[in-house]
Amino acid sequence: MNKHYGTVLIMGLNFINTTMHSFLNETIYPLLESKEKCFIVTANPELVMGTRESSEFKHHVDSADYVLPDGIGIINAAKIKGMPLRERISGVDLTQAMLEYAAKNDYSVFFLGAKKDSNQKAVKNAKKTFPGLIVAGHEHGYADITSESFIDSMVATRPDIILVALGMQRQEKWIFDNINRFDKGIFIGVGGTLDVMSGNVKRAPKIWITLQLEWLYRLIQEPKRFFRILKVMEFMLLHVPIVGPIIQKLKFNENRKKR
């Protein structure tokens, strides 16, 4: 569906090269008005590495209409390639903008995913922050959200925006498996966005983001993310001249030995 934007290819994924403002005004708002369907992936370095390790996951991401550069690592990788992206498009910021627009223009939103407490708080806070927001429905990510009865009940709500916060891979698979059941809707995998909206997870202060240390702030908050951070580091090393080809060769030899 990508009719508007040039793309930058990073490790097999085509990232759209635009700004948040343009994406909202040229794509999101017109799609809501025309009631078309759309699948959006917000991709950070960890997601990119995941597509290299799972062909099924790569297939799910490739089926998306738009892959957004959500992560400073993606921006830096594009610069190293000599094909800079215009702007990082954060999933959290995009979600906030969509909710604000939905509240002002009577579009409905379905909140799917996160833990039960986070899901409920995110919905409550969204209603408070965006008066008039129409919540088509909500369900946490530990319920039976793949059952026929649940999908049928969700389809019946006819949401205009579907926020899917099931974690990387699981959320993209859910959208891939179910988007064709709906007759309209902007489906977007938002990862930990509902946790942030609920207040259960604090977003990094602007100064940390400006200094490109958002990853460190999150690691301090959630030490269990350490091994996930290693994937981000590997992603960046793969884009360093000389070092990248060496890592690629080591990976190739390692995979050959496993066969």
From TrEMBL:
Coiled coil: none annotated. CDD domains: Glyco_transf_WecG_TagA. The keyword GTP-binding does not apply. Keywords: Glycosyltransferase, Transferase. This is WecB/TagA/CpsF family glycosyltransferase. InterPro entries: WecG_TagA_CpsF (IPR004629).
